[in-house]
User: What shape does this take?
Amino acid sequence: MGTLRTAIYNWVLARQTGGQFLLRIEDTDQERLVPGSIEQIQESLRWLGLEWDEGPGKDGPHGPYIQSERLQIYQAATKRLLDSSLAYECDCSPERLTMLRERQKAQGLPPGYDNRCRSRPGEELRESRERGVPIVVRLKSPGHGDVTFRDAVRGDITFDSSKIQDFVIMKSDGFPTYHLAHVVDDHEMRITHVLRGDEWIPTSPLHVLIHRALGYEVPVYVHLPLLLGKDKTKLSKRHGAASALEYRDLGYLPDAVFNFLALLGWSPGEDIEIMSREEIVRRFTLDRVNDSPAVFDSEKLEWMNGVYIRQMPLDALTDDIMPWLEKAITPPWNRVQRPIDRTRVRALIPMIQERLKRLAEAPDLLAIFFEEEVMPDRNSIIQKGMDVAATTKALTEAHALAKSTQPFEPEPLEIVFRALAEQLGIKPGQLFGSIRVAITARSVAPPLFHTMSGLGRDRVITRLDKAIRTLESAP
Assistant: This one.
């Protein structure tokens, strides 16, 4: 979700400025490739409405957009650095580097490369290459002075160059490191703004050094604040779903997730929380991006999703809910004929729209309208302050009213049943509670009279009759 928040800010800035939003697949670390991950990234972006202007499947002047297809470009940049003596080849083995780090640690020194190969004779490296020894390319660090870059949110950030060791830019397998690849790509693709997580701040001086060595202009960097859980620890699976597609599969709306994530680290400057993506694009400015961590509150996301659901037009909400009903397999949905009657569902949705927080809740909330039979518990039918006799009398009168009330719609039903409670000398809540349990077998359901209307007269009469018999047969 943090990566998706970053994508939103990049997309919003591109749309606001009339720029281009590029999708680049950075796969130079071949050992960490996960099958299907590229497709998941694209599906997540599309679900959230973050269509890219250039990228896989949308060719443009700056392709290819998968780094493993751009190796010649990185190798050419590396050759330029070698030819200008700003980089050098290194044949130090992993075993030597491990021993070096252990020795530095034992001496209380910061771990890092000791620049052994900076001045190695070329003939030694040629011999290593002929013997098949793995060779990498390192960029020469200045070793003195400062490296300063400007962050659009945090201002100037300065690092001591003497603490920056010569670092690898090209691996022995011919693949560049991330540091080199993304810098070259940003230049070649004419990227002007890079909005990324603040975990990249410590390695930003490396990127600035590569820009300088290659004579590139440094883009505008914006390091976005870290996302934390409500317990103020780094956001993880325990704080909620891990990916955008998991939130989709839990029944969250893309517009709600977009709105929620946009406000994690940025504020429009007013006490506004519900905004369309068009309004977010219009209001977004880099100077209102925060530099302190933002709290990811899953309860607030659920609340916001509920607000968006309540604002949805009936037909659009019906369209979104139907797939959830069609794929539901728990009772009573496993017995409901497919395709499910959309017209009936559309008529029922107003009864649950106010209570619905996620689309995934719809099958459970609508189940009472599709159950052929309910089995209410006798004790649950009897409300506080009532007994068997009083409850039986109340439901018997309710049974008669259900037969005669015309039309069988919420407003007329409420009028006659409130009058019945007064006539019986009981509280409306006592009468309504008994009826609710009798016809739904639940103590909590959509508003009673909407529920009765949605179930229809025949079902209500049948279920009231069954509840009365349950009470009369009790010892």
